[in-house]
Amino acid sequence: MTKSFFLKYDKNAKNVQIKKNIINYFINEGNNTITELSKELDLSIPTITKFINELQEQELIIEYGKVQTSGGRYPILYGLKPDSIYFIGADMSREHLNIALMNFKGEMIDYKMGIKFEFENTPESFDILHKHLQNYIDNVKVPKERLFNINLNISGRVNPESGYSYSSFYFSEQPITEIMTEKLNFNVGIDNDTRAMALGEYMAGVVEGEKNVIFVNISWGLGIGIIIDGKPYYGKSGFSGEFGHFPIFDNEILCHCGKKGCLETEASGMAIHRMVIERINNGESSILTEEVKDLNKLTLTDILNAVAKEDPLCIEIIEDVGYTLGKYIAGLINIFNPELVVIGGLLSQVEGFLLLPIKSAIRKHSLSLVNRDSKIEMSKLKKKAGIVGACMVARSRLFDNNKSL
Question: What predicted TM-score, i.e. pTM, was given to this entire model?
């Protein structure tokens, strides 16, 4: 994406900032009239009109018709031009890769779910990831010059600002974002998968006006995304949200972080996977013994499918894990007093089997004056939360790298 397409050089920094504010308003609030923009941005109507006209000339903003009012002239509604810029988001899990394309208005116009990709922290796996992304870019049916940014979700310790992923593909001193930008010839950014999912849910999911939200991602691992006053909370180095690595249990179970007793060892997809195998090996019955002949090849998806078929063993384990998780989400509620807690990630597919014990534990273990302010909801985006969030993160970086309008 060249600077000349999206960003027209302007020496006046104040003008640049006003245009950014207008675009960000449309991104966050949707279409509106010049009069309302004037009120929201505290600028005169002639000033807003001038910049709206310039942004229309740059093909970033278009008219959306007139608003019906009770009298006088009908004001014109303005908003982002959908096909002016596009963004790609990729969400990587242990078993699959999901990739999507989003337009400037935040509408998903193409996606590929469940691309076979078995993650391994090796250069070979990184090369396969690159090939999948390149293939998607090559086949996407939009002008390549209008592709502005790509974002890749990665689990674990990710510093979006520096471009380093310390949990995956940390093979050299060069930031992973630079390596991928060179390989794909497009701007590439990275972010923590759970934080991106939280942004996706905030912008296009179950959130309805709440500004302080905690998104709990229970997939293979366990993490949280934190939204404070409508903005993702990153922490000093982008490492916020490592909920799964609270040192809770005296269980001697080694977590993938290298320490023992982490919350994740008893309340995560990884824990559920281990418990199912242990209990089947101890002689308990499950439909999985017929459907998966080799338990060494058992996946979390297999377990979720067994729950959908009402397998008693898998349901019991998920309910037990849900209660354990809810007990510690209660602690988060006591600390943050959020308006909304969203339960998402791969395990959210089992709906009430997970949500009901979580709510039960929260009621028992959180402070009643605090938890009554917090709604507990399942993710609306479900398995698409990652790619929606990845695209939203890519769009949020519209003004990175000191670009000017």
Answer: 0.91
